[in-house]
Write a structure and sequence with these properties.
Layout: H1 4-24, E1 26-32, H2 35-50, E2 55-61, H3 68-77, E3 85-86, H4 94-112, E4 116-120, H5 124-135, E5 139-143, H6 155-166, E6 169-172, H7 175-183, E7 191-193, H8 197-209, H9 214-217, E8 225-229, H10 233-236, H11 239-253, E9 257-261, H12 264-273, E10 281-284, H13 289-297, E11 301-304, H14 308-316, E12 320-322, H15 331-334, E13 338-340, H16 345-356, H17 374-384, H18 392-400
Parallel strand pairs: 1-2, 1-4, 2-3, 4-5, 5-6, 6-7, 8-9, 8-11, 9-10, 11-12, 12-13
Helix pairs in contact: 2-3, 2-8, 2-17, 4-5, 5-6, 8-13, 11-16
The structure holds uridine-diphosphate-N-acetylglucosamine.
Uridine-diphosphate-N-acetylglucosamine binds at residues 34-36, 64-67, 70-71, 91, 97, 122-124, 155-156, 231, 263-265, 268.
């Protein structure tokens, strides 16, 4: 048996080593809040875990989305760890929601004092947490930075512009995003083009998704239906616009069945306005990630006002009609399968009919760096800048002095 002192010394050495390692580790706090955040954060968490010796990570869920269908199902499908901190902020007006997240997040952040706060996308939680971190002089990295619809009536556009102004590291998906940031006066050295992180999740999950039984459950055959999603306030908060869109969909659905997993907001607006979708449109509750992926990837086309789906359909070459007047993701139109058709009856129906008749021969390709390795580049960028101690607020203050 070893003398007690030797064992103790060995323990102290091991413990010191562990402690030193912990001290050297880069401390990162990842934020999620709403449905489109989960598929962006999942591969980042996985990559941080893979580089676990260098990073200690914490996951905060703001609770902006709270239903199992909008949140819990995604954590399970994507194999995400339970959040370390759940702020449980829930509904409210935009101001209430943003303010509640800010107040709750400030406490969590002050307790953690990470080297980086990582926010993704453009939801209210993204802006709220970026603002709190910036005020606490904690560096912010924004994943999916630089996208612009140039439509300031969209709440997401405001969130995008402000989050980018508050961020120290801007991780962009495409060259147009870099250009937008430079035009807004963001210095080049803060911008890193990493590609589209949602596509990492798509490529990782596509095989598992094919095992979903959703097509059989809904008695659908591949290519024999279209998928619809609709939740933008500009489309669903106005009964006239909603009726206009449904009229066009009614015409399309005479030739091709339309499956419509409806966001809770849309379901409640339809009830409130007494607006029913046409008979050929099958409404159902929102689906989890894997069922939904199986569904749209086997569809003839998707019709949507979502941002993410424009990108995902481009990555898999599925035709996409965007029911909006603009897109913050122009690369999906220039290079991918997306067509922006607005809410005009004629434009929607004629574009859909061309796809149904297989006349759509739009040349489409997957944009550069949408290669399934974006999360690796994101984590590498965070680690390579981990030694820069100051956040942009401090730099600005120093310059002013
Ligand atoms: C939010 C994002 C939007 C994103 C969308 C995806 C903002 C400004 N908008 O919009 O960019 O595309 O998420 O879903 O952040 N609700 C539930 N259960 C939930 C979540 C919401 O019932 O789990 C209902 C509530 O009635 C709520 C309404 O949906 O008031 C709207 O939710 P909210 O988070 O405010 O915005 P979304 O429309 O979901």
């Amino acid at each position: 048996m070893k003398p007690r002192q030797v064992v103790t010394n060995k323990f102290v050495t091991v413990w010191r080593g562990y402690f030193r390692k912990r001290v050297d580790m880069v401390k990162i706090l990842n934020v999620v809040g709403a449905r489109p955040n989960f598929m962006k954060m999942a591969p980042i968490i996985a990559e941080m875990k893979r580089r676990g010796g260098e990073i200690s990570q914490t996951l905060v869920h703001t609770g902006q989305h709270y239903d199992d269908a909008m949140s819990g199902a995604f954590f399970r499908d994507l194999g995400m760890p339970e959040p370390d901190v759940h702020l449980d902020t829930r509904d409210g007006t935009h101001a209430e929601q943003t303010a509640r997240v800010m107040m709750a997040f400030e406490g969590a952040l002050a307790a953690e004092r990470p080297d980086w706060v990582v926010v993704v996308g453009d939801v209210n939680s993204t802006l709220a947490c970026a603002l709190v971190a910036n005020k606490l002089r904690i560096r912010v990295a924004h994943v999916e930075a630089g996208l612009r619809s140039f439509d300031r009536t969209m709440p997401e556009e405001i969130n995008r512009v402000l989050t980018d102004q508050l961020s120290d590291l801007l991780l962009t998906p495409s060259p147009d995003a870099d250009e937008n940031l430079l035009r807004e006066g963001i210095p080049q050295e803060r911008i890193v083009r990493v590609g589209n992180v949602m596509i990492d999740t798509l490529y990782r999950q596509i095989e598992r998704a094919q095992r979903s039984s959703i097509l059989d459950d809904l008695r659908l055959i591949p290519q024999g239906f279209a998928v619809l999603t609709l939740h933008r306030p500009s489309n669903v908060d106005n009964p006239d616009t909603l009726r206009l869109i449904f009229a066009a969909l009614g015409e399309i659905s005479r030739e091709l069945a339309i499956v419509f997993p409806a966001h809770p907001r849309t379901q409640s607006r339809m009830r409130e306005f007494g607006v029913e979708p046409p008979p050929g449109v099958r409404v159902m509750d929102p689906l989890g990630y894997l069922d939904f992926l199986k569904l749209w990837s086997n569809s003839k086309m998707t019709l949507t006002d979502s941002g993410g789906l424009q990108e995902e359909t481009t990555a898999l070459g599925v035709p996409c009609l965007t029911l909006r007047e603009n897109t913050e993701r122009p690369i999906t139109v220039e290079q991918g399968t997306n067509q922006v058709v607005g809410v005009d009856h004629e434009r929607i129906v004629s574009a859909a009919e061309a796809i149904i008749a297989n006349e759509r021969s739009k040349f489409a390709r997957v944009p550069e760096l949408w290669d399934g390795r974006t999360s690796e580049r994101i984590v590498a960028a965070l680690l390579s800048r981990a030694d820069q101690q100051e956040c942009q607020g401090e730099r600005a203050a120093t310059i002013e002095m």
